[in-house]
Specification:
By secondary structure, the protein is α/β, with parallel strands linked by helices. It contains 11 helices and 10 strands. The chain folds into 2 domains: 132 residues, Nucleotidyltransferase, domain 5 (2-Layer Sandwich), CATH 3.30.420; 167 residues, Nucleotidyltransferase, domain 5. The strands form 2 sheets. It has a 5-stranded mixed beta sheet with strand order 3-2-1-4-5, with helices on both faces. The chain has a 5-stranded mixed beta sheet with strand order 8-7-6-9-10, sandwiched between helices. Belongs to the KAE1 / TsaD family.
Length: 347
């Protein structure tokens, strides 16, 4: 072996291509990252104001072999050292998923090693296991990304109870749509977060959707519509638009609901540990408010570093490792499933 490992170490080669990042990672025993290469397509999609699936798929095809090679080189290993291959098979853009999954299948077949299909949403949760080596389930996890907003009780590795989810727009999707309406560009989340720091979060009383009493579900379409109506109203009256105040007030309306439901759910479940995951976990306002509220309740909060919040293959490899040691194996006939739900397992 060309790295310092012992005979029983598990070396995972992981591939992530669910949206607009081509990423390949090598991990040792699930939680130790030897390489994590990400080829981003943000520049290609910025001119369209969002991800174009056909463009994303073509860029994945162009990038995948180069990124695999770079990941192996940075980890100082060869294919001979790899124990198994893990790859995202859903949810995501079906064409994009198939590029990474096909590459993983080819490696597994050629090297005669196991394949482990991975759920992308689970990957966001497991990013915390890489960041916090001591972390173990059970805990409550708030998953907030461009396509998903979930409150999940993680009982054990691979065992989940969905306590709440969005009924319409995901939080990250709402951020992107509001950013587009403000003329900020793509991706919208970081731009809104940056502007919000200079704005007054109480300037505009945007609605906060708590839904029916006791519900841990989310809804952000009404808030998004309220922001658009406000912007249109300002334009019709010939009034200037206070962009920083709009960003701050909108962001506050989102994160207050996310945090309040997370805290209430955690207290009801009698848990003392909360984990934050997903691309929107990088939002500074969300981190600060959740940190404040969990501290008040004596709840331990964990979240990943910024580089592990966005889509990356290291988080996929961590899930793949636990699937592998749990005895799960995927067939080479495994297909991409764009609407894959958390907790679903397909072989």
């Amino acid at each position: 072996m060309s790295i310092d490992v012992i005979k029983d170490d598990v070396i995972t080669l992981a591939i992530e291509s669910s949206c607009d990042e081509t990423s390949v990672s090598v991990l040792k025993n699930g939680r130790f990252v030897l390489s994590n290469i990400i080829a981003s397509q943000i520049e290609q999609h910025q001119k369209f104001g969002g991800v174009v699936p056909e463009v994303a798929s073509r860029k994945h095809i162009e990038n995948i072999n180069l990124v695999i090679e770079e990941a192996l080189q940075e980890a100082k290993i060869t294919f001979d050292d790899v124990t198994h291959v893990a790859a995202t098979y859903g949810p995501g853009l079906v064409g994009a998923l198939l590029v990474g999954l096909s590459a993983a299948k080819a490696i597994a077949f050629a090297r005669e090693i196991p394949l482990n299909g991975v759920n992308h949403i689970e990957g966001h949760i497991y990013a915390n296991f890489i960041e916090h080596k001591e972390l173990e389930p059970p805990f409550i996890c708030l998953i907030v990304s461009g396509g998903h907003t979930h409150l999940v009780y993680m009982k054990d590795y691979g065992a989940y109870e969905i306590l709440g989810k969005t009924r319409d727009d995901a939080a990250g999707e709402a951020f992107d749509k509001v950013a587009r309406a403000l003329g900020l560009g793509y991706p919208g989340g970081p731009l809104i977060d940056k502007l919000a720091k200079a704005g007054n979060k109480e300037a505009i009383p945007f609605p906060k959707a708590y839904l029916e009493e006791g519900s841990y579900d989310f809804s952000f379409s009404g808030l998004k519509s309220a922001v658009l109506n406000y912007l249109n109203g300002q334009k019709m009256k010939g009034n200037p638009i206070p962009v920083e105040d709009v960003a701050a007030s909108f962001q506050q309306a989102v994160i207050e609901v996310l945090v309040e439901k997370t805290i209430a759910c955690t207290v009801e479940k009698g848990m003392k540990q909360v984990v934050l995951a997903g691309g929107v976990a990088a939002n500074s306002g969300l981190r600060e408010l959740l940190q404040q509220k969990t501290k008040e309740k004596g709840i331990d909060l964990k979240y990943p570093s910024l580089k592990l919040c966005t889509d990356n293959a290291a988080m996929i490899g961590c899930v793949g490792y636990y699937n592998y040691i749990g005895g799960h194996r995927s067939s080479l006939a495994l297909n991409g499933i764009p609407n894959l739900k958390i907790g679903e397992i397909h072989s």
